[in-house]
Specification:
Elements: E1 4-5, H1 22-30, E2 35-40, E3 43-50, E4 55-59, H2 70-76, E5 81-85, H3 103-116, E6 122-127, H4 129-140, E7 145-151, H5 164-170, H6 172-181, H7 184-193, H8 203-213, H9 216-226, E8 244-249, H10 258-266, E9 270-275, H11 282-285, H12 287-299
Parallel strand pairs: 4-5, 4-6, 6-7, 7-8, 8-9
Antiparallel strand pairs: 1-2, 2-3, 3-5
Length: 302
């Protein structure tokens, strides 16, 4: 299967046939010459690829998209083949045909994606939900994942580890009106919560998060994800021997920094970095510092 380039998007009919459709407008606004699409189980997975060398796969968190890693891509593509992905239900990928966003489906899609790109071994990094997907995948494919980077990773399902927007959306009454009540000013408040350094949150950033979340299929995917029964598999991490770098922001308002230590206690072979004055998305707030830490980690012998 040959991935479809941005230049050949016009041929993706009827998927992007209507120039006035929400999908077409988002494509025009957020895709660029680096954009690629690969068909998996009837769905078009959007990703970007830059650089050469050992593959480094980047998985974003909930509400987000591959754009959250742009700072890392610019720095790390000088040494690695960096591949950032819009996960199913997010960004320009949008809905998957079976409309089932259970973790096993994410495992399947990621496995097929790596197979299509003929990636036998790679480094894998994920933020928040993407971190959870990353370590669950690494547990199942330890021979394929050479090193793992967890950035404010999800995975614990206790009350303190569920962000406020997720709790609100799960409430029977509020959940029904959540998608209609979530206007841009309210959404901006939620977005700003994940950043400690507010100067990095520009109007363009808010627009991007809002545009992708309010895309019809993405919003439905979000409710599908949060309303499924979540299982805490973190105890299995004691069997994950893949060298792992844990990155966290001390001021993370969504997932407490204490969870970094919990991951560190479970993982047999890890390094842990907690950054002061940093929130839930360290790679956006401190791209250079965190990218340098990742580069150093990936070069280390274990």
């Amino acid at each position: 299967m040959i991935p479809i380039s941005f230049e050949s998007i016009a041929s993706l009919k009827p998927l992007f046939a209507d120039p006035k459709s929400q999908e077409q407008q988002l494509l025009k606004k957020y895709a660029d010459h680096r954009s690629r699409f690969v068909s998996i189980n009837g769905s078009m997975i959007h990703y970007r690829e830059e650089g050469t060398g050992q593959p480094l796969i980047l998985l974003h968190g909930a509400f987000s998209s591959l754009h959250t890693f742009e700072g890392w891509v610019k720095l790390l593509a000088k040494k690695y083949r960096v591949i950032s992905i819009d996960l199913p239900g997010f960004g320009l990928t949008g809905a998957i045909s079976e409309d089932d966003y259970c973790f096993e489906n994410y495992m399947t899609y990621l496995n097929i994606f790596l197979d299509r790109l003929e990636i036998e071994k790679c480094y894998l990094a994920g933020n928040s939900l993407g971190g959870w997907i990353a370590w669950e995948y690494a547990l199942r494919h330890q021979e394929q994942i050479e090193k793992l980077v967890l950035i404010s990773s999800a995975g614990f399902v206790d009350e303190a580890s569920i962000p406020t927007p997720f709790k609100l959306a799960k409430l029977p009454v509020f959940g029904k009106i959540f998608k209609y009540a979530l206007q841009r000013p309210i959404f901006e408040k939620f977005v700003r919560e994940v950043y400690c350094e507010q100067s990095v949150v520009c109007e363009e950033t808010i627009d991007r998060y809002f545009d992708f979340f309010t895309r019809d299929c993405n919003m439905e995917a979000f409710f599908n994800i949060i309303n499924q029964e979540l299982h805490d598999n973190t105890e299995k991490l004691k069997n994950l021997y893949t060298p792992t770098l844990i990155i966290w922001g001390k001021e993370d308002a969504w997932l407490p920094a204490e969870n970094a230590r919990r991951f560190s206690e479970l993982l047999p072979n890890n390094r842990m970095l907690i950054y002061s004055d940093v929130g839930h998305i360290p790679m956006e707030e401190k791209p250079k510092k965190t990218a340098n830490a990742v580069s150093k980690f990936l070069k280390e012998d274990f």
